[in-house]
């Protein structure tokens, strides 16, 4: 469904992604793990069109998206939930959901169906509809960031460090949310510092080291890999 082929990405003259390739099949959860600064966020931003690769290609459902603007990529169904949520503290929960729908992909669930689906999945967001985002707890803000992304009617959701700063109980809830989204048919590309969590959720994983893929395997195989255990699981 999503195919990244041999992309090179630079910030100015500094190359940070050196020919990276990855694939995400429809209905899968794929994770991209790696240490700080390896280039995970840069990869997601390149897929979502905020950065342009200097070479290589990115296609979604067989169509090149790497020359498209970010809003066109969203309208094609590829949506990134950014690291740190990036909410507007003075806007209400309801306003964020409306905003998420502005560039929505056509087809799939209607606006009303998406609202109902989100309220079913995150009842607290319905209760807090009129509340400003800045007054929500960290866990609620993460739910809102995901819900805003879902309002764009994605087919492929990219999550960047969703567990960052969450209390353990909220991390468990996040894990359930990602599972149920996937069970509902959502394709997911997950970037996550908690490598154990990421590899539990994913069927396939890529390990990124300084801008290149070092390992690519079934998630179960990676969980048992001694290199992954020492470098990322602290075992
Ligand atoms: P983290 O989990 O810490 O965010 P990451 O794997 O997502 O790490 P990136 O944020 O993609 O890594 O960063 C990859 C490299 O690019 C790093 O060396 C970083 O310093 C550099 N970098 C990131 N953003 C910029 C930028 N806007 N300008 C210049 N260099 C950048």
UniProtKB/TrEMBL annotation:
<dbReference type="GO" id="GO:0005524">
    <property type="term" value="F:ATP binding"/>
</dbReference>
<protein>
    <submittedName>
        <fullName>ABC transporter ATP-binding protein</fullName>
    </submittedName>
</protein>
<keyword id="KW-0813">Transport</keyword>
<feature type="domain" description="ABC transporter">
    <location>
        <begin position="2"/>
        <end position="235"/>
    </location>
</feature>
<dbReference type="InterPro" id="IPR017871">
    <property type="entry name" value="ABC_transporter-like_CS"/>
</dbReference>
<keyword id="KW-0029">Amino-acid transport</keyword>
<dbReference type="InterPro" id="IPR003439">
    <property type="entry name" value="ABC_transporter-like_ATP-bd"/>
</dbReference>
<dbReference type="InterPro" id="IPR052156">
    <property type="entry name" value="BCAA_Transport_ATP-bd_LivF"/>
</dbReference>
<comment type="similarity">
    <text>Belongs to the ABC transporter superfamily.</text>
</comment>
<keyword id="KW-0067">ATP-binding</keyword>
<keyword id="KW-0547">Nucleotide-binding</keyword>
<dbReference type="Pfam" id="PF00005">
    <property type="entry name" value="ABC_tran"/>
</dbReference>
<dbReference type="InterPro" id="IPR003593">
    <property type="entry name" value="AAA+_ATPase"/>
</dbReference>
């Amino acid at each position: 469904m999503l195919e990244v082929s041999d992309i090179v990405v630079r910030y100015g003259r500094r190359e940070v992604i050196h020919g990276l390739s990855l694939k995400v099949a429809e209905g899968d959860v794929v994770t991209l793990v790696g240490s700080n600064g390896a280039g995970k966020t840069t990869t997601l931003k390149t897929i979502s069109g905020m950065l342009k690769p200097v070479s290589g290609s990115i296609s979604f459902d067989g169509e090149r998206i790497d020359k498209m603007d970010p809003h066109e990529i969203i309208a094609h169904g590829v949506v990134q939930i950014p690291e740190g949520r990036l909410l507007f503290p003075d806007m209400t929960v309801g306003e964020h959901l409306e905003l998420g729908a502005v560039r929505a992909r056509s087809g799939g669930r209607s606006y009303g169906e998406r609202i109902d689906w989100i309220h079913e999945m995150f009842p607290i967001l319905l209760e807090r509809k009129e509340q400003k985002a800045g007054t929500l707890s960290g866990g609620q803000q993460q739910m809102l960031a995901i819900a805003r992304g879902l309002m764009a009617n994605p087919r492929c959701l990219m999550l960047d460090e969703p567990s960052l700063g969450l209390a353990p109980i909220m991390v468990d809830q996040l894990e359930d949310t990602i599972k149920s989204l996937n069970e509902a048919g959502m394709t997911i590309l997950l970037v996550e510092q908690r490598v154990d969590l990421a590899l539990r959720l994913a069927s396939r994983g890529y390990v990124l080291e300084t801008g290149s893929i070092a390992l690519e395997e079934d998630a179960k195989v990676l969980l048992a890999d001694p290199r992954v255990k020492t470098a990322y699981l602290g075992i």
